[in-house]
């Protein structure tokens, strides 16, 4: 085309404030919660205190959330009159630090909550939280204020127990006394403020409308200086209202529609769900109930919103008084005609001069006909609802209201439905299905749902142009659909006689502004004819235009903007940007599942390119023809052959819609929020746990076997006896594997794949010089020395592998002889199916193919994320534990045990029966019949696995005693070094076939075997009882005799008499009557003085009937040790002092001070050597050469051996990224992982004359662009 050579900068994108994120099938599919690992995929936009910078600056308020940790934030920034950000914040910092804390002006809501929680009663007396009594009467959100129906919905167990309070309600208010960090059972929260996803924050201050309705001017003047408030909904069950000056919460509202699901917030494992998640609207309206002598016209400031994916219904809050009062609640509507309302409700006045809230009926409403309806709710009591039906199937999305004749009353409403139709509602006519509302655009099929409100403008020939995009993010299925239909942007004329829609096709150009990628119409725009038909014309008066979106999976999920004759919108693609192998944009390439966005700018009448250039693509700060793509037209005087781009690729991210602030009459500032999350959406990824690792122990009555070859004779923190020593249950365990998931690259423990007597080497990142019986190599007996490439024997032995490199050793069985080429694990001793058992494997006869047994669980309530599979049957571990425990408590006879989840099948098994069960159904954790406990990769992060330590599980110390880990006496007794180096320990005497000669333990340690072994007394929220294996998930196989009778004896209940013969119950019911703790074979008894003794010490070995025991747990606490190194500390075992603090420390990671302490005392040259050693090691891993890997490992290990401080830094440095600002991390710690919440950046810092530097915008991820241990991004292995 020929474009007149002039410049106009009316819609220049002058700033993008970025974090970056992920989000969005054929027909519309609604599933608000999705599968357990569904990431949040929507980013809410900024709010601003004023949209005009003509008279000065503004405050911008940025919503933020963190996938995985599921905490949220509102962050305040200052923007000056030139659009420059003059303040900053460390988004996602740990702990949250705002300007208020350091004497500044800007705040972070997370930091304000943290500060307020210094008052232990803040949750009880420091917060104003209200709800409804069910009849639109406001009540305080306390248990004793709720009626019986509300109590049953919110906390049935507390209601049934007639409790004086509810742990769930208190949790929502902010009480932490019952969460895991306080040795309770409820979920631990990083912050009281939950994640903010679909709820768009709104700023409320003085009334801003220009109404000429009686009484409004007085109302506006009265509240002209009203203190500002910031309102937003969060995934914590509450709508929050913050003081916009201080960031402190003023009050909060708990919608009753969410009561029945508030228990999900407390659950472990935590499965992310939605709560107050809808968009909000605030405005002025007249409310009859507000009429009084001081307010004769009833003017009020009303905040209204839906619950989004959280629930069905809407609410309205009176914001006239900025402070808390007893009359905030206007109404709440729940269920009925109302479905899940995502979009912004609208406030409007009708011809009766009454004010109403307008919404679509939302998704999954209870209308039996499933028709799309516009719902109009009166702001006057009794708040009646009028439903205006389209008569068409679907759900109506958010409406846009139009005052066509400027009389300050609603004349028209436009809204789309989930079948892709666009509707016009005329309030000046009688409503009748088929005529009013009128379908102004009829979708040809249901592949293009409309889920956001349209934007409406006037057409030059009369009537209205209605602009909207299509696409949905209403289910996880849509987000990962490779065949998602092509979506589009539409412009429809509501007065058109014709029905034809002109399609404008866009091309992609990757070279004109390399590396920027743009879209343009290549001068192939089609004519859109709005003129009336002339005689003989067959195509005239088009209905409008559409622009198909070019990338598979791309869609529009927000309302477009209409400014200066242009329709602009940011599109979203949750499947990610398509790239070639080099990572460059390629429309035919592979989508990476990281999200991507385009900003589209289209002519409002044609859908083609604009007549003005609006994007500075060459980065010279000037808008001219150099920012357009050459076209093929013939040059004519006064014209230039250029095609202005219609779209700009914004990179791998998810961005919000822009919040627009006016800089000048011809220049706008775009504030765009974003969040980049690299959690893969397209395909699930197998591997170890994303957060932390698990340890696995195995035990049997036969006793520990001699450790073969590469295993230290004394493993970490416990003893393996030489020979076949029958020690019964509760003595020395048979095997211990540290980092089991990381070694094997799995998140399950499968007994058919686990060699129960043999533990692999500990994989903690350390290197030691063990006591040597080989003077030549200095290595333990039976191991092979490490040699250089020239054959030179290298000093020292790599006893362990750096945890971050375990993936390189996935297939390396360190327990097998080095000459064993197969390196296969043995399984139970099934010589006919699983190979030949190795020498010293003495108890295979206990696990014969035809041995009958039952499976019992202990502590499943502490590790509820597990799924148990026996054969091909599966149960949640808590369900199985409850089922088997309740039946065994009633009658221990195995023949009476029934699987109530699978048709009352028997719960007595044999290995042969399991192995011959055939192929398991699709969806089973294992397709092969087996005995397995399976977890998803987020099981630890979602707090679904019990955190403890091997020392606690194995009974090495009394959790009630204080111990200094670094004391030589403690380290030597281990007798392998646990957490320190450089300790000189006397040798341990081994005699083949005989028990080990033990040292005397230091104070605080429990002898092995001795009293209190493996048992943790718990007497708080769980009632009086004892946790086996310190609360770790335990699977026991208990023998059944050939005649079907029990060969086992169970740990029995205490009969109340304090005699030596009494056995304590494992465990008694909690204070609400729930069975907890599961059941175990008889293992210990308690005398009248409370002394605990292992059962076989008085009853004889193996009376319990135990065949095999496997224990799995999250090995936590390393970070707590690192932070407190060198100082005495409580051992962070479950139930002991310091447990809650250590648990919280592990989840949160290092703060900056703790991180800096790791390397402050290390000489610079040593750090340089370390950085090079790590680099060499990573390069060796990439090479895949085992010799190079071993050499690099040895070099690193030797460096760590002689530098204890460096060892501590090496061990704990991974806890920093993602929670510490990028610019405060050492170079080697930067860029390790993905994003946990990057800081925002203002791209154009040169003032309003310069447009956006697009390249910087696309890569401006901020100073904290990292993931941390809290996020879903895979941490370094």
Characterise this structure:
- This protein is of the alpha+beta class and 1277 residues long.
- Helices cover 13% and strands 22% of the residues.
- It contains 22 helices and 59 strands.
- The strands form 17 sheets. Strands 41, 42, 44, 49, 51, 55 and 58 form a 7-stranded mixed sheet that branches. Strands 6-5-10-9-8-7 form a 6-stranded mixed sheet, with helices on one face.
- Strand 39 and strand 40 form a beta hairpin.
- 55% of the residues are buried.
Can you tag this structure with a few keywords?
1277 residues, alpha+beta, 7-stranded mixed beta sheet, 6-stranded mixed beta sheet, globular, disordered C terminus
The Cα radius of gyration reads 34 Å
Strand elements, count: 59
Q: What fraction strand? A: 15-25%
Mean pLDDT: 74
Helix content: 10-25%
- Profile the largest sheet: 7 strands, mixed
What is the count of helical runs?
22
Q: Which consecutive residue ranges, at least 5 long each, have pLDDT under 50? A: 1-27, 633-640, 678-684, 704-727, 755-846, 956-983, 987-1015, 1017-1024, 1055-1064, 1096-1101, 1125-1131, 1231-1277
Question: Termini separation (Å)?
Answer: 55 Å
**Coarse morphology:** globular
What class would the helix/strand composition place it in?
alpha+beta
């Amino acid at each position: 085309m020929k474009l007149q050579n002039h410049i106009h900068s009316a819609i220049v994108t002058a700033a993008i404030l970025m974090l970056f994120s992920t989000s969005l099938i054929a027909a519309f599919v609604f599933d608000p919660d999705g599968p357990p690992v569904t990431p949040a995929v929507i980013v809410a936009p900024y709010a601003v205190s004023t949209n005009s910078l003509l008279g000065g600056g503004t405050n911008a308020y940025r919503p933020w959330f963190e996938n995985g940790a599921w905490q949220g934030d509102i962050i305040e920034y200052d923007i000056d009159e030139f659009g420059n950000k003059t303040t900053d914040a460390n988004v996602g910092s740990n702990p949250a630090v705002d300007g208020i804390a350091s004497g500044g002006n800007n705040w972070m809501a997370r930091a304000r909550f943290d500060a307020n929680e210094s008052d232990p009663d803040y949750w009880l007396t420091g917060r104003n939280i209200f709800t409804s009594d069910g009849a639109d009467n406001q009540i305080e959100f306390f248990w004793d204020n709720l009626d019986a129906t509300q109590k049953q919905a919110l906390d049935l167990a507390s209601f049934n127990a007639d409790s004086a309070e509810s742990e769930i309600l208190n949790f929502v208010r902010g009480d932490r006394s019952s969460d895991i960090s306080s040795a309770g059972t409820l979920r631990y929260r990083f912050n009281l403020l939950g994640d903010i996803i679909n709820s768009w924050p709104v700023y409320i201050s003085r009334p801003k409308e220009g109404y000429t309705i009686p009484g409004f001017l007085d109302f506006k003047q009265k509240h002209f200086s009203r203190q500002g408030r910031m309102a937003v909904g969060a995934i914590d069950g509450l709508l929050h209202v913050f003081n916009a000056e201080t960031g402190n919460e003023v009050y909060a509202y708990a919608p009753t529609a969410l009561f029945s699901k508030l228990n999900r917030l407390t659950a472990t494992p935590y499965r992310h769900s939605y709560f107050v998640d809808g968009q909000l609207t605030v405005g002025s309206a007249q409310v009859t109930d507000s009429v009084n002598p001081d307010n004769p016209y009833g003017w009020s400031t009303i905040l209204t919103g839906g619950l989004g994916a959280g629930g069905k219904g809407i609410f309205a809050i009176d914001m006239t008084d900025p402070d808390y009062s007893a009359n905030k609640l206007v109404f709440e509507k729940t269920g009925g005609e109302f479905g899940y309302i995502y979009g912004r409700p609208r406030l409007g006045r009708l011809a009766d001069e009454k004010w109403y809230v307008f919404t679509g009926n939302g998704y999954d409403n209870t209308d039996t006909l499933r028709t799309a309806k516009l719902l109009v709710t009166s702001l006057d009591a009794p708040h009646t609802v009028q439903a205006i039906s389209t008569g068409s199937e679907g759900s109506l999305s958010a409406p846009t209201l139009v005052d066509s004749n400027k009389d300050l009353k609603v004349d028209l409403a436009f809204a789309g439905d989930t079948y892709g139709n666009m509707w016009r509602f005329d309030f000046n006519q009688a409503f009748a299905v088929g005529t009013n509302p009128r379908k102004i655009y009829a979708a040809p099929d249901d592949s293009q749902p409309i889920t956001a409100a349209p934007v409406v403008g006037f057409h030059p020939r009369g009537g209205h142009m209605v602009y909207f995009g299509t696409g949905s993010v209403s289910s996880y299925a849509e987000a990962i659909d490779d065949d998602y239909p092509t979506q589009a942007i539409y412009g429809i004329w509501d007065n058109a006689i014709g029905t034809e829609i002109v399609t404008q096709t866009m091309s992609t150009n990757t070279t004109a502004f390399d590396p920027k990628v743009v879209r343009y119409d290549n001068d192939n725009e089609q004519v859109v004819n709005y003129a009336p038909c002339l005689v003989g014309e067959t195509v005239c008066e088009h209905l409008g235009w559409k622009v198909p979106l070019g990338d598979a999976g791309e869609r529009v999920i927000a309302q477009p903007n209409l400014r200066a004759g242009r329709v602009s919108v940011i599109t979203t693609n949750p499947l990610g940007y398509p790239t070639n192998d080099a990572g460059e944009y390629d429309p035919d390439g592979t989508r990476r599942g990281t999200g991507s966005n385009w900003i589209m700018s289209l002519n409002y009448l044609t859908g083609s390119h604009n007549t003005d250039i609006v994007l500075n693509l060459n980065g010279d700060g000037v808008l001219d023809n150099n920012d357009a793509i050459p076209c093929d037209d013939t040059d004519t005087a006064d014209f230039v052959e250029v095609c202005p781009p219609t779209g700009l690729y914004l990179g791998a991210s998810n961005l919000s819609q822009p919040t627009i602030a006016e800089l000048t009459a011809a220049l706008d500032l775009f504030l765009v929020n974003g969040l980049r999350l690299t959690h893969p959406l397209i395909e699930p990824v197998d591997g170890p746990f994303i957060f932390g690792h698990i340890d696995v122990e195995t035990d049997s009555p036969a006793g520990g076997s001699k450790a073969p070859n590469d295993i230290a004779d004394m493993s970490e923190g416990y003893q393996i006896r030489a020979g076949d020593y029958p020690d019964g249950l509760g003595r020395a365990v048979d095997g211990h594997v540290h980092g089991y998931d990381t070694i094997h690259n799995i998140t399950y423990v499968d007994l058919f794949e686990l060699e129960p007597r043999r533990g692999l080497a500990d994989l903690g990142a350390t290197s030691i010089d063990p006591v040597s019986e080989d003077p030549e190599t200095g290595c333990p007996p039976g191991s092979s020395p490490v040699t250089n490439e020239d054959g030179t024997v290298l000093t020292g032995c790599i006893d362990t592998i750096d945890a971050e490199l375990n993936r390189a050793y996935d297939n390396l069985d360190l327990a097998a002889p080095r000459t064993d080429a197969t390196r296969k694990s043995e399984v139970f001793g099934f010589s006919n199916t699983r190979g030949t058992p190795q020498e010293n494997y003495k108890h295979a006869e206990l696990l014969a193919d035809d041995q009958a047994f039952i499976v019992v669980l202990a502590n499943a309530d502490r590790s509820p994320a597990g799924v148990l599979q026996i054969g091909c049957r599966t149960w949640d571990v808590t369900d199985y534990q409850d089922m088997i425990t309740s039946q065994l408590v009633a009658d221990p006879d195995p023949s009476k045990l029934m699987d109530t989840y699978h048709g009352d099948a028997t719960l007595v098994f044999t290995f042969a029966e399991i192995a011959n069960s055939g192929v398991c159904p699709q969806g089973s954790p294992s397709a092969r019949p087996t005995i397995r406990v399976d977890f998803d990769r987020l099981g630890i992060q979602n707090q679904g696995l019990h955190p403890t330590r091997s020392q606690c599980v194995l009974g090495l110390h009394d959790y009630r005693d204080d111990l200094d880990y670094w004391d030589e006496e403690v380290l030597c007794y281990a007798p392998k070094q646990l957490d320190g180096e450089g300790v000189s320990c006397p040798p341990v005497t081994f005699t083949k076939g005989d028990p080990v000669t033990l040292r005397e333990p230091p104070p605080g340690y429990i002898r092995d075997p001795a009293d209190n072994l493996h048992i943790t007394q718990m007497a708080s929220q769980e009632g009086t009882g004892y946790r086996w294996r310190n609360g770790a998930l335990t699977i026991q196989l208990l023998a059944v005799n050939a005649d079907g009778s029990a060969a086992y004896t169970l740990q029995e209940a205490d009969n109340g008499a304090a005699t030596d013969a009494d056995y304590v119950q494992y465990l008694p019911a909690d204070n609400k009557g729930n069975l907890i703790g599961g059941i175990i074979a008889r293992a210990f008894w308690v005398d009248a003085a409370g002394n605990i003794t292992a059962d076989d010490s008085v009853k004889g070995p193996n009376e319990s009937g135990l065949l095999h025991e496997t224990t799995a747990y999250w090995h936590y606490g390393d970070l707590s040790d690192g932070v407190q190194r060198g100082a005495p500390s409580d051992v962070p075992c479950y139930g002991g002092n310091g447990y809650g603090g250590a648990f919280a420390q592990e989840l949160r990671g290092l703060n900056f001070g703790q991180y800096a302490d790791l390397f402050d005392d290390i000489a610079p040259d040593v750090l340089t050597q370390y950085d090079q050693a790590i680099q060499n090691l990573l390069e060796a891993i990439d090479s895949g050469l085992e010799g190079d890997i071993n050499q690099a490992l040895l070099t690193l290990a030797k460096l760590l051996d002689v530098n204890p401080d460096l060892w501590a830094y090496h061990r704990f440095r991974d806890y920093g990224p993602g929670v510490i600002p990028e610019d405060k991390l050492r170079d080697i710690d930067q860029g390790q992982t993905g994003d946990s919440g990057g800081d925002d950046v203002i791209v154009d810092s040169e003032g309003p004359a310069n447009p956006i530097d697009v390249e910087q915008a696309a890569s401006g991820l901020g100073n904290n662009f990292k993931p941390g241990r809290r996020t879903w991004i895979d941490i370094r292995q």
